């Protein structure tokens, strides 16, 4: 492979010999016009970490309610109480969705919700407790740092106490949502009511200290600058150096439909560049996930050659991105995920939520 931009090869060498990128090098990656060179270098680094392996999990997303007190400008999922299209699931309904998933082989339940104006912390706690009791073998990945912050406020408990209670009830790990861009300017414009970025990081740090692994995300393609993306990635990298508790980083491509943010969605090339640059800047996170729900099947598949090593999972019934105009399906079969990975020239590994290999296929 011809890499036109030789500086990319120097950056790769630096990483392979144990170095890390400076802020300027990070910005450089986003601005290089050698798009294929960037992808090649990111793929080389990903293969240095994981060989040809590409991971996925059989899982299901459950969103107990879309009522939310935050009303972030970029979110098409959130509804005010009483607004058309709003819903709240009973414990029985949640259990039923979980049951369907588990009977189809799900090993992970991914549960995130709105910040309901009336539900007490106990309701969210009971969701975890019930599901763990009924499906003890299933991994419960639940509640973003933003929800944890909300639970702490409504219960009067500290973040640590909230996390300990959830862990006791059966929470196994936490998803990476709510990070958006870890920056005051962007948050003031897009989500002024949301947990601030310092606190978002503190909550993940607290979770890591309690032995709870988490993921992290970056919502891109709205009003953020390249510099703000790089700064976001470096903030995550620095926390990872202290705790090692992040398992995967998921760049989330902004979908503007039905939101208050008027922008053109990112293009495929922009999505792939973001995956590649993230892989190299945030070098100490084990996996970069190509979330096919947001990227679409095609770009997610190609991303497996641009630095991503995980496709998330079967998902089933995704609501957040579909409310904002996603045209990807609501779920993918295991068969389809295997085909996407194999056709990308990678070897599929079905994983559990902690990246233990459950099944190797080739
Ligand atoms: O926090 C909201 C984002 C996130 C839009 O941890 C939007 O394994 C695009 O975090 N367009 C939720 N994105 C999704 C998420 C996630 C998904 C899959 C796996 C994991 C994991 C985490 O979706 C929100 C927000 O950042 N979001 N609105 C929108 N219009």
In short:
With 362 residues, this protein is of the alpha/beta class. It has a single domain, classed as Aldolase class I (TIM Barrel), CATH 3.20.20.70. It has helices at 6-16, 23-31, 35-50, 91-103, 121-134, 145-155, 159-169, 184-190, 197-209, 226-243, 268-281, 292-303, 320-323, 334-343, and strands spanning 53-57, 59-62, 108-111, 139-142, 173-174, 213-220, 246-253, 287-288, 310-313, 347-351, 357-360.
Describe this structure in words.
The protein is of the alpha/beta class and 362 residues long. The protein has a single domain (21-354), classed as TIM Barrel (Alpha-Beta Barrel), CATH 3.20.20. It is 45% helix and 14% strand. It has 14 helices and 11 strands. The strands form 3 sheets. The chain has a 4-stranded mixed sheet, covered by helices on one side. A 4-stranded parallel sheet has the order 5-6-7-8. The protein has a 3-stranded parallel sheet with strand order 2-3-4, with helices on one face. Helix 2 crosses helix 10. The longest helix has 18 residues, at 226-243. The radius of gyration is 19 Å and the shape is globular. The model has no long low-confidence stretch (mean pLDDT 96). The structure holds ligand V47. Ligand V47 binds next to strand 6, strand 7 and helix 13.
- Rg over alpha carbons: 19 Å
The CATH homologous superfamily is named Aldolase class I
The tally of domains stands at 1
Q: Give the tally of β-strands.
A: 11
**CATH architecture field:** Alpha-Beta Barrel
Helix coverage percent of residues? 40-55%
Average per-residue pLDDT, rounded, comes to 96
């Amino acid at each position: 492979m011809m890499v036109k931009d030789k500086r990319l090869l120097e950056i790769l060498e630096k990483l392979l010999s144990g170095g890390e990128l400076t802020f300027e090098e990070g910005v450089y990656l986003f601005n290089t016009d050698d798009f294929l060179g960037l992808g090649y270098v990111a793929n080389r680094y990903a293969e240095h970490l994981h060989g040809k392996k590409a991971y996925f999990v059989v899982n299901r997303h459950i969103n107990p309610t879309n009522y939310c007190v935050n009303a972030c400008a970029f979110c098409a999922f959130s509804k005010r109480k009483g607004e058309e299209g709003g819903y709240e699931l009973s414990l029985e309904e949640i259990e039923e969705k979980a049951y369907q998933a588990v009977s189809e082989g799900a090993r992970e339940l991914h549960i995130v919700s709105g910040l309901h104006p009336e539900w007490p912390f106990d309701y969210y706690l009971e969701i975890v407790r019930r599901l763990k009791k009924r499906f003890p073998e299933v991994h419960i990945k639940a509640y973003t740092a933003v929800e944890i912050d909300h639970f702490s406020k409504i219960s009067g408990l500290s973040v640590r106490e909230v996390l300990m209670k959830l862990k006791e009830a059966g929470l196994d790990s936490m998803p990476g949502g709510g990070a958006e861009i870890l920056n005051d300017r962007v948050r003031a414009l897009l989500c002024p009511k949301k947990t601030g970025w310092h606190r978002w990081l503190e909550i993940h740090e607290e979770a890591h200290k309690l032995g709870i692994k988490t993921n992290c995300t970056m919502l891109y393609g709205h009003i953020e600058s390249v510099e703000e993306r790089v700064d976001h990635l470096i903030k995550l990298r620095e926390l990872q150096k202290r705790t090692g508790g992040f398992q995967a980083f998921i760049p989330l491509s902004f979908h503007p439909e039905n939101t208050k943010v008027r922008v053109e969605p990112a293009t495929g090339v922009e999505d792939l560049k973001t995956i590649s640059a993230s892989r190299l800047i945030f070098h100490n996170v084990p996996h970069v996930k190509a979330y096919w729900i947001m990227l679409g099947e095609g770009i997610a598949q190609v991303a497996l050659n641009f630095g991503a090593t995980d496709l998330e999972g079967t998902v089933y019934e995704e609501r957040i991105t579909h409310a904002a105009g996603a045209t990807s399906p609501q779920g993918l079969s295991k068969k389809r995920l295997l085909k996407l990975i194999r056709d990308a020239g990678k070897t599929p590994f079905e994983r559990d939520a902690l990246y233990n290999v459950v099944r190797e296929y080739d």
